[in-house]
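[Discussion] Sanity-checking designs against the backbone

I'm trying to build intuition for which residues belong where. Below is a structure token string of 98 positions. I'd appreciate it if someone posts a full sequence so I can compare it with mine line by line.
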């Protein structure tokens, strides 16, 4: 089950969308520095910084990460494609408030 985690708001460096929530796509892990992320508005590739804010990755960082993790590129490509075509990343509807 996916769990959303509130983070200190930051602007997407690509589209300036306010990013204040992160979630693990396949699990319930909280974001940690160095985790990869994607803006759900523009599909920009982000990395979680030391202050847990999503930032633009340094040049070559993603390529190095892909070299170390052969499954990373496929996961990122799948997520970016889902965002770009407007597919629901998380099919679970948001909880209703009572
Ligand atoms: Zn964005």
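Best answer:
Here's mine. Compare freely.
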């Amino acid at each position: 089950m996916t769990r959303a985690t509130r983070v200190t708001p930051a602007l997407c460096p690509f589209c300036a969308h306010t990013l204040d929530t992160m979630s693990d796509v396949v699990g319930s892990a909280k974001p940690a520095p160095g985790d990869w992320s994607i803006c759900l508005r523009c599909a920009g590739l982000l990395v979680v910084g030391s202050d847990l804010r999503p930032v633009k990755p340094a040049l070559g960082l993603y390529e190095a990460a892909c070299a170390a993790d052969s499954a990373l590129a496929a996961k990122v490509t799948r997520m970016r494609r889902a965002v770009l075509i407007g597919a629901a990343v998380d099919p679970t509807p948001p909880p209703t408030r009572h």
